Structures are given as structure tokens and as C-alpha cells.
Amino acid sequence: MENEVSKEVIVTDIRMPVGAMMSFMLKLALASIPAVLVLVFVVYLVSLYVFSMFHG
Fold it and tell me: Which residues contact 24 (CB under 8 A, 6 or more apart)?
């Protein structure tokens, strides 16, 4: 992998119908809900552990 060449790509324009963009944004919003729930649960567990260390 010594001779790997770095190539850059610059996107200047995306043509997408409004309906397709709305569908994409709705799917993105719905997909983010489980990710946020998992993140909240992990933060809850970490904070429980940290607070239990201080309040013995």
C-alpha cells in the first residue's frame, strides 16, 4: 500500500426531486430515534456507575 494515490472528489450539484428529498429526510429522522435511545441508555448506565462511585 505504499503506492496509494489520494484522489479528491468535490460534489458541486445534486439534483433531487422535492418528494425524494422529503422521503430521505423522513427516513433519516426515523432512523435517528433508535440511535438516540441507545445513546441515552449508555449515558444513563455510565452516569449510574459514576454516581455510585461517589455516593458509595
Answer: 16
Establish if 12 belongs to a structural domain: no
Which residue type sits at 54?
A: F
pLDDT for 33-49, tens place per residue? 999 999 999 999 999 99
Q: What's the pTM? A: 0.56
Report d(CA 54, CA 2) in Å as an integer.
51
Angle at Cα 8 formed by Cα 6 and Cα 10, nearest 5°? 175
User: Domain range holding 30?
Assistant: 17-56
Report the chain's terminal Cα–Cα distance, integer Å: 52
